[in-house]
Specification:
- By secondary structure, this protein is an alpha+beta fold.
- It has five domains: 29-111, no CATH class; 119-199 and 351-359, Alpha-Beta Plaits, CATH 3.30.70; 202-344, Gyrase A, domain 2, CATH 3.30.1360; 365-403 and 419-521 and 557-567 and 663-833, no CATH class; 580-656, Alpha-Beta Plaits (2-Layer Sandwich).
- The chain is 57% helix and 14% strand.
- The strands form four sheets. The chain has an eight-stranded antiparallel sheet. Strands 4, 7, 10, 11 and 12 form a five-stranded antiparallel sheet that branches. The protein has a three-stranded antiparallel sheet with strand order 8-9-13.
- A hairpin with a 3-residue loop joins strand 2 and strand 3 (176-182).
């Protein structure tokens, strides 16, 4: 027994150790404290440098010690890596400035929490970009608006390439873009703003074939002087001046794709892949340069210029008829990646930075704390229920689910993700799926024990019978999550990533870890009986009979909800979807942000979002107040009346567009629609088309019913609600597949029973499992609803409604649809029914059967 489970035990311990190591440190550490504690060579000498850096910050010469150390290394040509020999830097990188940059970036990364919180939970940094209108610009207002919208899309793509999870990007007024980044500090990473706003104009220009800048040499007509920085083989840096033709021979429009890779010496370079027209033009240009060089008696050169900076000027010996070219230069791996990303997403509008500031969390601290408290209570309630109902087996399930959560968080941390409320929604669904898998196994074991099997035989048989159902349920959810990743943006993609990780971790922990632990307890004799409570017996209900009534009643509620949506119109959308007013308030006395939020809520002004922000560099601290369109002045008046001593005065105001832009909304709808289609195709392939129709109808029913009840309750949609709706899709499908899998099994086990009775038998036998799974997830969501505030309350309310509708539809909507599709005829099912595939259950012992 121990020998056959040894590899599982070692793998489990390895996964546990990896997850814990990946998540440490759990909180950010001050950069100065971290580097002081981790210097491993010449500590006294380095601490003196650190003290000097701190003095530079106090004197206002730099924004942070991080920037100060970088400046000290640059000015003194001092290699800081000598103080941290344990951090390995590329041996062939001899440029001191580049080595220092890589070292400091790595130290900063290590000082940060491995799983930082998002803007909604912890705040971040933000900057506002303004589109520059040059003299002679003839674009009308509509064209400028289209360019700004395109710029927002490009900035979103660039920021995603930086690994920043769930940024907030939206239009401000008519010519500005606001970008808020969680987990990013522009004081320590000032280059990120430049990379976001870079126009990325790429030119291929001719270098003058005979003349070079020198005293007494005049600049030839049509040329300009540009400097080319280079790095020698020994790390020495230098610069040469060249005469570069002003008019380019070809531009970045000839490039179809660009990416970074190491060259033959291990140094980073950027590869440019040409379009068909670009390839032809590049051949013409290089042929012209080569011929000119031969006539001049020297090799001609081609200048590669990005945003008016000369990056490289390679020599050209002959015509180059190639699919690609490369940009080489003195830059790091990260700079090469950023350069390739910018080239792939060029801006056609120039942007200038107008403001940079730090922002507080968009969720009040009390809401964050209440959300944490509610999460602990919810998880505790689930654990108490599982242990109380299934005793020792329930304790094993709790251990497995705990490992499951650690693995999900560990993978998210390793991916550089940021934890936001939609991400938490994904973790809640993961917990639900993990508990569901264990309940499936335990209830199957109960059936086998009731049939008279021994505990050992019931254990193996129960796992075998539950295996197919668990795989099917998780694979259908995987279809949804993968499509969210492919087609979604922002919270949709983040939710999809979390669920995808959760699916694989659930399969690992439920089908391997729990099986191993139970096998050890049972085979060793430490667990002689499987003590389980049993207050739910298979009900004698004609589910098909009541299906018609349930179908009509629930769709009446759906119709009422849709009518409410039509009646309320755009008022159902919060600031994330509809935009609104933003007012900055100066003040003499700071008011607790929770009090501000409570006052605004009591004034019944709709959705309001107050938080404090400060300009980077020690500027004025302001209260940023976001409201629905047209309600900003009323909110200001409310605060002035409630807090007369605070001295609130309007320092500025503007109108912002939605952070959930039209593209994100359309992609969310596209991902949901394709998910439903993918589920139908998968279920039709794995089962048959009747099951697929039932799954799709029940899923659409659950989404519409949940949205309708949400709107009828007077609530508004915000960005995190997208994650909540997606959770309902995943939960509904998971529950429905379990019922369908049992119907398919009972059709095989009862070859002479009519379809109606088979459906009723199968549904009654999974009834207890459906209720128990719903109950455990409901307990977690109920704790969030009762003890959580703000958006946590809205999310948990949606979860509660979705859990009820999902359970209801799997029992009373999906199966009757399947029955009606086949017109109640078992032969019609058998004519289209495929045979359930056999999965090999590696944990079972065939001898036990």
């Amino acid at each position: 027994m121990f020998r056959r489970n040894l590899w599982k035990l070692l793998l489990t311990l390895a996964m546990l150790g990896w997850a814990i190591a990946t998540l440490i440190p759990l909180q950010d550490q001050p950069f100065v404290d971290y580097v002081k504690a981790h210097v491993t060579a010449k500590p006294a000498e380095f601490n003196a440098l650190l003290a000097e850096a701190s003095a530079m910050k106090r004197e206002g010469r730099v924004l942070s010690e991080f920037v100060a150390l970088k400046q000290i290394g640059k000015d003194r040509r001092l290699d800081l890596t000598q103080y941290f020999p344990d951090i390995r830097i590329e041996s062939n990188l001899t440029n001191v400035e580049k080595r220092n940059e890589i070292l400091l970036a790595e130290l900063l990364r290590r000082s940060k929490s491995r799983l930082p919180l998002g803007l909604d939970l912890a705040g971040g940094v933000a900057f506002t970009l303004e589109a520059v209108q040059r003299p002679g610009d003839t674009a009308d207002e509509r064209e400028r608006a289209e360019k700004l919208d395109k710029a927002i899309e490009i900035i979103s793509t660039r920021i995603n390439a930086f690994g920043v999870a769930e940024p907030l990007i939206r239009k401000v007024g008519n010519n500005r873009i606001e970008v808020q980044l969680p987990g990013v500090n522009t004081r320590d990473n000032p280059e990120i703003v430049d990379q976001v706003k870079a126009p990325a104009r790429l030119d291929f220009r001719i270098v003058h074939p005979t003349l070079t800048p020198a005293p007494g040499v005049e600049t030839p007509p049509g040329y300009e002087i540009m400097s080319l920085d280079y790095e020698g083989r020994r790390g020495e840096t230098g610069s040469e001046e060249l005469f570069i033709k002003r008019v380019p021979e070809m531009t970045g429009e000839a490039i179809s794709n660009s990416f970074a890779r190491p060259d033959m010496y291990g140094k980073p370079e950027v590869i440019l892949q040409f379009t068909n027209e670009g390839k032809q033009r590049f051949a013409e240009v290089t042929r012209q340069i080569a011929e000119g060089g031969r006539q001049a008696g020297r090799l001609g050169r081609l200048a590669i210029v990005l945003d008016n900076k000369l990056y490289s000027a390679p020599t050209v010996r002959e015509e180059i008829n190639s699919e690609s070219a490369q940009i080489t230069g003195s830059f790091t791996d990260r700079e090469a990646l950023n350069l390739a990303n910018v080239l792939n997403n060029p801006l056609d509008v120039e942007l200038q930075v107008k403001e940079q500031y730090e922002v507080g969390p968009t969720m009040a601290e009390s809401a964050v704390e209440s959300g944490k408290r509610a999460t602990y209570i919810g998880v505790g309630l689930v654990a108490v229920f599982m242990i109380g109902y299934y005793t020792i087996a329930g304790f094993v399930a709790v251990l497995s689910v705990t490992l499951n959560i650690l693995v999900v968080l560990g993978v998210l941390a390793s991916l550089g993700a940021t934890l936001t409320m939609p991400g938490i929604a994904g973790i809640v669904l993961t917990v639900g799926m993990a508990v569901d898998a264990h309940i499936l196994i335990f209830e199957r074991m109960r059936e086998e024990l009731s049939a008279g099997k021994s505990l050992v035989a019931a254990f193996h048989s129960g796992h075998d019978r539950a295996f197919t159902t668990i795989v099917d349920a998780n694979l259908t959810t995987l279809i949804t999550s993968v499509l969210m990743i492919v087609f979604g943006n922002g919270p949709v993609k983040g939710f999809g990533v979390t669920i995808t990780i959760g699916i694989f971790s659930t399969l690992f922990t439920a089908l391997l870890v729990s099986q191993m632990l139970l096998d050890f307890l049972i085979s060793s004799g430490r667990m002689k009986k499987m003590l389980m409570m049993s207050f739910l017996q298979p009900p004698a209900i004609d589910f098909v009979k009541y299906g018609k009534r349930a179908f009509i009643a629930s769709w009446i509620v759906v119709a009422i909800g849709l009518s409410a949506i039509a009646f309320r119109g755009s008022s159902i959308y919060g600031i994330d979807f509809a935009g609104g007013d933003v007012i900055n308030l100066a003040f003499k006395q700071e008011v607790n942000i929770e009090q501000v939020q409570r006052t605004l809520d009591n004034a019944k002004l709709g959705e309001t979002l107050p938080f404090y922000q400060s300009e980077i560099g020690g500027g004025q601290r302001l209260l940023n107040l976001q409201t629905e369109a047209g309600k900003g002045q009323a909110a200001v008046a409310t605060l002035k009346s409630a807090y007369p001593n605070a001295g609130f005065e309007v320092a500025g105001s503007t109108i912002v567009g939605p952070s959930m832009g039209r593209e994100i909304q359309l992609n969310a709808l596209l991902s949901i629609g394709l998910s439903i289609l993918g589920i139908m195709l998968y279920v039709a392939f794995r089962f048959e088309i009747g099951y697929g129709i039932g799954a799709v109808v029940s899923t659409i029913h659950d989404v519409l019913l949940t949205i309708g009840i949400f709107v009828l309750s007077g609530r508004q949609f915000s960005a995190p609600m997208v994650g909540a709706i997606l959770l309902i899709v995943g939960y509904s499908i998971n529950d429905t597949i379990v019922v369908f899998d049992r119907i398919r099994e009972e059709l095989k086990n009862n070859p002479n029973t009519n379809l109606r009775d088979v459906i009723n038998l199968a549904t009654s036998r999974v009834f207890a499992r459906s209720i128990l799974t719903s109950l455990t997830t409901f307990l977690a969501a109920l704790a969030l609803y009762l003890f959580g505030g703000g958006v946590v309350n809205d999310l948990s309310f949606t979860f509660l409604v979705g859990i009820v509708t999902g359970t209801f539809s799997s029992l009373f909507i999906a199966t009757p649809i399947f029955y009606w599709w086949h017109k109640g005829d078992r032969k019609h099912v058998e004519a289209h029914h495929d045979i359930a595939p056999k999965y090999e259950w590696t944990g079972s012992s065939k001898a036990s059967h």
